[in-house]
Design brief:
Blueprint: H1 3-41, H2 48-64, H3 69-95, E1 103-109, H4 115-124, E2 130-136, H5 139-147, E3 153-160, E4 164-165, H6 167-174, E5 179-187, E6 191-194, E7 205-208, H7 210-215, H8 217-223, E8 227-230, H9 234-244, E9 249-253, H10 255-260, E10 264-267, E11 277-284, E12 296-304, H11 310-320, E13 325-333, E14 336-347, H12 353-365, E15 366-376, H13 388-391
Parallel strand pairs: 1-2, 1-3, 7-8, 7-9
Antiparallel strand pairs: 3-4, 3-11, 5-11, 6-9, 6-10, 12-14, 12-15, 13-14
Protein name: Bifunctional chorismate mutase/prephenate dehydratase
Keywords: Amino-acid biosynthesis, Aromatic amino acid biosynthesis, Cytoplasm, Isomerase, Lyase, Multifunctional enzyme, Phenylalanine biosynthesis
GO cellular component, one term: cytoplasm
Length: about 400
Amino acid sequence: MSDQALQVLREKISAVDEQLLALISERRTLTNDVAETKIAHHIPVRDQKREEQLLISLIKKGKALGLDPHYVTQLFHVIIEDSVLNQQAMLAERANPGSALPLNRVAFLGDKGSYSYLATQKYFSRRPGELLELGCQSFSEVVHKVENGEADYAVLPIENTTSGSINEVYDQLQHTELSIIGELTHPIRHTLLTATTTSLEKIKTLYAHPQVFTQCSHFLAELGNVEVKTMDSTSSAMLMVSELQRDDVAAIGSEAGGNLYGLIAIKSNLANQKENHSRFIVVARQAVSVPLQIPAKTTLVMSTVQKPGSLVEALTVLKNNNINMTKLESRPMPGNPWEEMFYLDVEGNVADGPVQNALAALKDITRYIKVLGCYPSEEISPTKVAAASALAE
């Protein structure tokens, strides 16, 4: 095939891609119109039966066009997730009039290229208003910027699928009056980044955030005699390597972040678990109202009385109200040796009866309880289609 013929084909593909983008944009507009109807008639955002019927129909039509069922399913999972998140954002904005800001000042750990920076970009891409990024050197600085009014929001990592809970953030939540207003889960893809073209064998020094080293401990063990230097953020590690311009030093971070510092990715998928995700929370000075049509989570902190079975008694309250607990974390109480504060994430809305009943019951049996926030759940589980492969036969 000549270069000219190849160029013609590429131009045709580009034209089709532009048509696809236009159609996806049109589809999003239509789903926003659907959201208006749901707002007016108090209809839940998600209708998984309708989503399943849609996927079954699309798989069958895709087969007629020569498309693989798995490919069609994966493609429309992304499209449906985008639709659900956009509708949720629209409903949340309507439920909180006056909350939309022309400029969103957001504090996060690190600088451009850090995982918190990427999570911030992802979360606020669905919100109105311009984004002003405020990088910080510690979690306490992140929180203080919102507390003193320098920032409107903070984005904080709360847990990771490989390294577990980020205790320092839980400790910050124990001492702040800020409210959790949102969450998101972001994939963490650790990559070895260098400033020059080099090889793995030449690396003598590695820079990264301590959490990153924990998540990549198996890779570090395989490297052997390499000096590990901890940094206060992933972006600081990448900046250091960029400034050194040596072939024997490297940082661990995201490939997208490394691109911002002119770094080269020489090895990918470094985490112990290949499905490595971090969950982030968004905090602000004021709580938000979450419409009942939106799946919600509530985070609370409590201290139980010092007697056998007190924690079990508290958790039984959740069971009796048919409330699913998705997270339980304990942290020491400062000044009270051997006493713990318990952090709980539950599925449910503080405006709904079951959660209200549970909170009332918990107040009677705990020494201290406080709601840290009720917020839209952005963990959109893909709709499963039974025997998708059989449907395509």
